[in-house]
Design a protein that fits this description.
This protein has helices at 27-40, 58-73, 88-95, 113-147, 157-164, 169-194, 200-238, 241-247, 252-290, 295-305, 308-334, 340-371; strands spanning 2-10, 13-22, 45-56, 77-81. It is an alpha/beta fold. The chain has 2 domains: 2-95, Transcription Regulator spoIIAA (2-Layer Sandwich); 128-376, no CATH class. Strands 1-2-3-4 form a 4-stranded mixed beta sheet, covered by helices on one side. It is elongated and about 90 Å long.
Length: 378
């Protein structure tokens, strides 16, 4: 006779323990019980503990082999642990014909630090090469689209702009207003000590228009449009729709990437302007309630301190940010290889890469604005 016990060790790991005999008499019942457990626990890491077995013959090996195949069927990861002494080689010889037994009996060795650094450098080099190639492809596609009228599919641009811009207005408005309120509250704490309450308008208006508005809006677009483009194009890559476009003689970059870059490049400055306006209004609300500043005095101070160049600098930054977001999202989508897991990885990677690139670009703009102020004066 045999007994099966199973318990959830963590949210993604299941431990199954078999005790007793795994012989020909018990094979059918044992196989049925293991199958029932796997059917109820898909998409999970399964460990089969063989330490409690008293007897294991060829029929038991067949059950274990069938268990491994069922794990593959239900997208589980199978691992055999506590193999009886002397039985490991026997199991290896019997499981060798299974198509997914690699790593089942032995865990995968973790690479050492030097190997991980080597792989990281190799991945960075490959990613840089892919990015340069992609940028060249986008520039070439735009140039060919401008030379040949009708190459870029403008009819879908309105829908893309709606998804990237209009649908993001509520969240951008809410966060922009809250950001203005937060900046005003933080400024009020310090300015009240010196009796310089009116200067809260200076801090809120300049910081919102020059830094916080473009950056906050771009991060929101990264989470919405950047991730969405990576998932959409990645799904098309998995389903071989990209290859189908190439077979039909359609350039995927011209057809998929160029309209998205244009849509986000237009939407980002528009959303930034909305964020700037509601952010300044949020600062006015806080200034009125916390610092006893009237709206008239607040907006007169904003008019005196805020220059057109400050707003223009922020809009230029948001335009560049929008181009970067759409490009990175589409690039990650084209890099998808495999199935759904690769699509999820590409989506996450798109958001992380966008935030990193936005931060670096923002730092570069800060240096340019500081050392070359006359170029940006309007």
């Amino acid at each position: 006779m045999f007994q099966i016990k199973f318990r959830q060790q963590s949210f993604d790991e299941l431990l199954i323990e078999i005790t007793g005999n795994a012989s020909v008499e018990e094979a059918v019942a044992l196989d049925r019980e293991l199958l029932n457990i796997l059917e109820a626990q898909p998409l999970i890491n399964v460990k089969l503990d063989l330490g409690g077995l008293d007897y294991l013959d060829g029929a038991g090996i067949a059950v274990i082999r069938n268990f491994v195949r069922n794990c593959n069927k239900f997208s589980n990861n199978a691992t055999l642990i506590n193999i009886p002494s002397g039985g490991k080689r026997f199991l290896e010889s019997r499981l060798s014909d299974s198509h997914a037994t690699m790593g089942i009996l032995d865990g995968i060795d973790e690479p050492d630090v030097a190997t991980q650094i080597k792989h990281g450098i190799s991945n960075l080099r490959n990613s840089s090469a892919d990015m340069i190639t992609f940028i060249g492809g986008v520039v070439d596609a735009f140039w060919s689209g401008l030379r040949r009228s009708g190459s870029i599919k403008w009819e879908g641009l309105a829908k893309l702009f709606e998804k990237a811009g209009v649908d993001a207005v509520p969240i951008v408005t809410a966060l922009g207003f809250l950001m203005g309120c937060i900046l005003a509250f933080q400024a009020a704490i310090q300015l009240r000590k010196f009796g310089a309450n009116i200067f809260v308008a200076d801090l809120v208006s300049v910081s919102i228009c020059l830094e916080m508005g473009p950056l906050l809006t771009s991060i929101i677009i990264s989470g919405r449009s950047g991730a969405g483009y990576a998932a959409h194009i990645g799904s098309m890559q998995v389903s071989e729709e990209i290859d189908a476009l190439r077979v039909l003689g359609i350039d995927p970059i011209l057809y998929l990437v160029c309209p998205r870059i244009i849509a986000v490049a237009i939407a980002a400055p528009c959303l930034t302007m909305i964020s700037n306006i509601v952010g300044i209004i949020g600062g006015c609300v806080v200034a009125g309630f916390s610092l006893d500043i009237t709206p008239t005095a607040y907006f007169n101070q904003v008019k005196r301190v805020l220059e057109i160049s400050d707003v223009t600098k922020g809009l230029i930054k948001s335009l560049v940010f929008g181009i970067e977001i759409a490009s990175i999202g589409c690039l990650r989508g084209f890099q998808v290889r495999g199935g759904a897991e690769s699509v999820g990885y590409a989506t996450t990677s798109a958001v992380v890469t966008c935030i990193f690139v936005l931060t670096v670009t923002n730092a570069l703009f800060a240096v340019l604005f500081y050392y070359f102020p006359r170029i940006w004066s309007f």
